[in-house]
C-alpha cells in the first residue's frame, strides 16, 4: 500500500525553492460579511499558470532521473495539470507531450502550447485521453505522469495546506474541491497532521459526484457538461481514495447554479477571477451557509483559468438573476 506522511509534504515544499510561489492566504472581508463567517481564501489563481497544479508537477518532475528527463514526459489533462507539467518541463529542460480531451477550453490549449509542450487533442473525456497517453508513452518511451493518482504529485499538492496553516493556524474547516482527489488527499494528510481537530470538507459538482459514490457505495451518474470542467472526473484515483477513506469529515455536492454564482461572487465581491472548479468551495458555502456559520473557514481558490467569453456570460446571467439588467 502506498503511504504519504507529513514529512513527504514538507520535503516537497523544501524542494520548491523559488520555483513555486507561496501564494497569499488572507481574510476576504466582503465574503465573510456576506456569509457571517470568517472566510480565508488561498489565492492559487495567482500561482504560476494561475493554478495549484504546478506544485505536484514540479515535485514529480524534480524526482525523475537524468535518463527519464532526457526521454521526456507525457500526461493527460483538461487543462491545469497540463499547464503545470508544460511550465515546469520548460523550466527544467524536459520535453513534454500533453494529451487533452476535445472538451478542453481553448484558452487552456493555447496556454499549454505557448509553454512549449506538444499538445495532442484525443478523446471525448479524460479516461479516453489517459488510454491514448499510456499507449503513446509506451511507443515513444516517455514517462507517464498521472494528474492525481501519483504519490509525488499528491505530496506537492499538500503543500497548500502547509502554507495555509502557517498563515492562518486557527482554521476550523478546510474546504477543498475534488476531481481526481490529488489535492484533497495531500491537504488532508498535511492539515490533519498539524491539527487533528480541523474538519476537511470535500466539494464536488452534482454532475460528477465521484468521491460521494466511492465513499457511500452509490452509483450516481457522472457525466455532462459543466462550468467546473477541472473537477469533472468520473473516478477518484485509487491512491487518493486510500488516503481519503475513513479520514474525510464531510462531502458536499453542489449545483451548477451555485458554481456560477460563486464565480460571479468572487469577481464582483472579492475582485478576483476564479474558474468553475476554483469556485467550488465558495459554492459549498452558498448552498450550506449554516454549516460554516461563525467558523474560521479556509477556501482554496485552486484556479483562475476561465475563458473570458465564458466569464462574461456567467457575469451577465448573474446580473440578470439579480435584476441588475
Task: Provide tags for this entry.
four-stranded parallel β-sheet; six-stranded mixed β-sheet; 15 helices; alpha/beta
SSE layout and pairing:
Layout: H1 6-16, E1 25-27, H2 29-35, E2 38-43, H3 53-62, H4 66-71, E3 73-76, H5 80-92, E4 96-100, H6 106-114, E5 118-121, H7 126-140, E6 143-144, H8 151-167, E7 173-177, H9 182-194, E8 199-205, H10 210-216, H11 238-244, E9 250-254, H12 256-268, H13 280-287, H14 289-292, E10 296-301, H15 308-321
Parallel strand pairs: 2-10, 3-4, 3-6, 4-5, 7-8, 7-10, 8-9
Antiparallel strand pairs: 1-2
Characterise the protein shown here:
This protein is α/β, with parallel strands linked by helices and 325 residues long. Helix content is 47%, strand content 14%. It has helices spanning 6-16, 29-35, 53-62, 66-71, 80-92, 106-114, 126-140, 151-167, 182-194, 210-216, 238-244, 256-268, 280-287, 289-292, 308-321, and strands at residues 25-27, 38-43, 73-76, 96-100, 118-121, 143-144, 173-177, 199-205, 250-254, 296-301. The strands form two sheets. Strands 1-2-10-7-8-9 form a six-stranded mixed beta sheet, with helices on both faces. Helix 12 packs across helix 13. The chain is globular. The N and C termini lie far apart (56 Å). The model has no long low-confidence stretch (mean pLDDT 95).
Amino acid at each position: 500500500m502506498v503511504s504519504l506522511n507529513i514529512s513527504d509534504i514538507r520535503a516537497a515544499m523544501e524542494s520548491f525553492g523559488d520555483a513555486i510561489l507561496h501564494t497569499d492566504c488572507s481574510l476576504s472581508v466582503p465574503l465573510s460579511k456576506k456569509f457571517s463567517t470568517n472566510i480565508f481564501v488561498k489565492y492559487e489563481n495567482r500561482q504560476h499558470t494561475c493554478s495549484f497544479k504546478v506544485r505536484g508537477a514540479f515535485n514529480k518532475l524534480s524526482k525523475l532521473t537524468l535518463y527519464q528527463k532526457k526521454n521526456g514526459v507525457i500526461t493527460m489533462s483538461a487543462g491545469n495539470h497540463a499547464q503545470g507539467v508544460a511550465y515546469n518541463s520548460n523550466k527544467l529542460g524536459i520535453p513534454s507531450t500533453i494529451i487533452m480531451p476535445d472538451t478542453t477550453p481553448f484558452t487552456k490549449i493555447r496556454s499549454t502550447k505557448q509553454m512549449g509542450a506538444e499538445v495532442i487533442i484525443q478523446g471525448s473525456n479524460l479516461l479516453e485521453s489517459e488510454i491514448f497517453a499510456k499507449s503513446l508513452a509506451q511507443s515513444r518511451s516517455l514517462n507517464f505522469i498521472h494528474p492525481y493518482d501519483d504519490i509525488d504529485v499528491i505530496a506537492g499538492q499538500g503543500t497548500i495546506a502547509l502554507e495555509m496553516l502557517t498563515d492562518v493556524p486557527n482554521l476550523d474547516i478546510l474546504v477543498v474541491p475534488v476531481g481526481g482527489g490529488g489535492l484533497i488527499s495531500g491537504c488532508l494528510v498535511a492539515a490533519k497532521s498539524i491539527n487533528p481537530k480541523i474538519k476537511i470538507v470535500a466539494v464536488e459538482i452534482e454532475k460528477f459526484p465521484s468521491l460521494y459514490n466511492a465513499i457511500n457505495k452509490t452509483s450516481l451518474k457522472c457525466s455532462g457538461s459543466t462550468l467546473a470542467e477541472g473537477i469533472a472526473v468520473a473516478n477518484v484515483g485509487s491512491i487518493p481514495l486510500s488516503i481519503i477513506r475513513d479520514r474525510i469529515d464531510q462531502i458536499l455536492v453542489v449545483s451548477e447554479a451555485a458554481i456560477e454564482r460563486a464565480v460571479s461572487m468572487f469577481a464582483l465581491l472579492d475582485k478576483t477571477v476564479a474558474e468553475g472548479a476554483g469556485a467550488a468551495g465558495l459554492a459549498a458555502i452558498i448552498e450550506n451557509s449554516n454549516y460554516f456559520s461563525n467558523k474560521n473557514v479556509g477556501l482554496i481558490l485552486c484556479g483562475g483559468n476561465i475563458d473570458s467569453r465564458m466569464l462574461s456570460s456567467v457575469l451577465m446571467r448573474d446580473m440578470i438573476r439579480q435584476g441588475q439588467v
